[in-house]
Fold:
Amino acid sequence: MTESDHETTQIEAAVFRRLLQHLMRDHPEVQNIELMALAGFCRNCLADWYREAAQARGIAMTRDEARAAVYGEPAAQWKARHQREATAEQLAALAAAQRGRDAR
Structure:
């Protein structure tokens, strides 16, 4: 790994930490279903990608461990404080977004 590669990795790690700060602590009011409808990913997706990256490097990690790494605590605790039941509007927006993605 070159110095430039190392710097790139450090920058990417800092960006990821800032994304987690933004989504988990600064804006917990944004619901996962809203993220899925608008961006096609949510906090749980980040946890799945985190786990896949760990496993690609030979690090065993459960889904709950990955979610705790992303949520900053057990996901169930975070969700109990911040996640609300999806509204009919949110469900409709997600369905429409998925249809739009499937049509591509």
About this structure: The CA atoms of residues 37 and 94 lie 4 Å apart. The helical segments are 3-26, 32-39, 43-56, 63-71, 75-82, 88-103. The chain has a mean pLDDT of 95.
